[in-house]
Amino acid sequence: MIATVGMVGDVVREVSGGRVRAETLIGEGVDPHLFRPTRADIAKLLGADAVFGNGHRLEGRMGDVLERVRQSGKVVVLLAESLPREKLRANPDYPDAADPHVWMDPALWSEAAGAAEAALGRLVPESREVFAGNLARFRERLARLDAYAKEAIATVPDNARVLVTAHDAFAYFGARYGLEVESIQGLSTEAEANLAAIEELVGKLVRQRVPAVFAETSVPDRAVRALIEGAAARGHQVALGGNLFSDAMGRPGTYEGTYEGMIDHNVTTIVRALGGQAPARGLNGRLSS
Ligand code: ZN
């Protein structure tokens, strides 16, 4: 089986408990919006028994291939598209799709994991009960992660409750935890950042004395550095708060290379950089320092 992005591959791994091997196509630090499948990737997708993805145009340039896989009669499960539309946010770039960055809200992602469990149960019926138990335990951990995020983010001072990132991946996160979200680029990374947007954001950073802005591991940090320089030119020191995992997870085999570790890293990094309180090594004491 194939998973498009790491966050989806992690759900398959958790729910199947390793009984099913899902290879992830789009790896660490790679931007799924821009990812172009190679000939070999396309062959893998067409040859897989099942493909798990996110959908809502996250895998922008893979959409046609996923459609071809589906038409060939294979199972294609798109986790974000399994959720009721009214729970999702609008996508101004594509009226036919929702904002794809659903994994940023652990409660929504927990719900979306149900679609993976249902599909795995159909594919491997003899393991259905095991998958149900794994899903329940995974959901418990995500509920704990969600509670940690809520509690830690609540400690960020009012003026600093602004999450500034390179592209607009954090709307679900901001809505869930009460942070205003600002970004230089839109929902997709396809369009260039514009200078007017940077100027406007610099103004906000200076006015509110926001202490930090954030880069993303899958997006170049040029525009974020422009914000820091812009604020410095106006007499306000803004720190680079760290590298967040937006559309890709950390290195495979590390805690940050799991969905749980990715969100723990983001929450902990954001809270500490914005002046709130969170343990340096995060919820589970497993973040690398
Ligand atoms: Zn994105």
Bound molecules: zinc ion
Can you summarize the main beta sheet? 4 strands, parallel
CATH topology title of the largest domain: Rossmann fold
Q: What is the CATH superfamily of the largest domain?
A: Nitrogenase molybdenum iron protein domain
Helical element count? 9
Q: What's the overall average pLDDT, rounded?
A: 95
State the secondary-structure class: alpha/beta
- Poorly predicted regions are none
Whole-number total of structural domains = 2
Structure description:
With 289 residues, this protein is an alpha/beta fold. It is 42% helix and 12% strand. The protein has helices spanning 6-16, 39-47, 63-71, 106-123, 128-153, 171-177, 195-208, 222-233, 259-273, and strands at residues 2-5, 23-26, 50-53, 75-78, 162-165, 180-183, 212-216, 239-244. The chain has 2 domains: 2-149, Rossmann fold (3-Layer(aba) Sandwich), CATH 3.40.50; 156-273, Nitrogenase molybdenum iron protein domain (Rossmann fold). Strand 7, helix 8 and strand 8 (239-244) form a beta-alpha-beta unit. The longest helix is centred in the middle third of the chain and has 26 residues, at 128-153. The two termini are 34 Å apart. Residues 33, 101, 167, 169, 246-247 line the site of zinc ion (ZN).
